[in-house]
Design goal:
CRO Repressor, four-stranded antiparallel beta sheet, 21% helix, binds zinc ion
């Protein structure tokens, strides 16, 4: 029985979406999942098709095919500055576009002048601009307009 329990694999991400219920059951914090994705070379969560918690307690991941990569939460530290810095709820949107929740990666489009609401899925209050390419987003912000 012990071996059976230890051999269980839990699916943390399916079709690019985090399964928050499974993560809660398995005691996996979103920062652990994000860290594991970053370690194996993902730039943002839109690149991840599936992720599993293996019996070894390691997180294994599978990449989306290039045609299915969507914008996602950049896997940068929460205190990063610049165009990919986090935005707290009640702050005003200064640049319209798609922003991903830092708790569940759910991207939502916001228009200039509105305020960021808490995430309706996980209720976290931090968002960051959803990106398709971290490097291009950082570089485009440094280029003169
Ligand atoms: Zn969320």
């Amino acid at each position: 029985m012990q071996d059976f329990l230890q051999a269980r694999v839990a699916r943390l991400v399916c079709d690019g979406g985090m399964d928050l219920d499974v993560m809660r059951e398995e005691g996996i914090a979103c920062l652990e999942l994000f860290g594991a994705q970053k370690t194996i070379g993902f730039e943002h969560l839109g690149e991840v098709e599936r992720a599993y918690l293996e019996p070894s307690s390691k997180i294994g991941s599978f990449k989306q095919p290039a045609s299915h990569v969507r914008t996602g939460l950049p896997l940068l530290p929460e205190r990063v500055e610049g165009p990919l810095r986090p935005h707290r709820s009640v702050k005003i949107v200064l640049s319209g576009g798609s922003y991903a929740c830092r708790g569940c990666d759910r991207p939502v489009d916001f228009v200039f002048g509105r305020t960021f609401p808490p995430c309706p899925v996980c209720h976290r209050e931090m968002r960051a601009r959803a990106v398709i390419n971290v490097h291009e987003t950082l570089c485009s912000a440094m280029r003169p307009q």
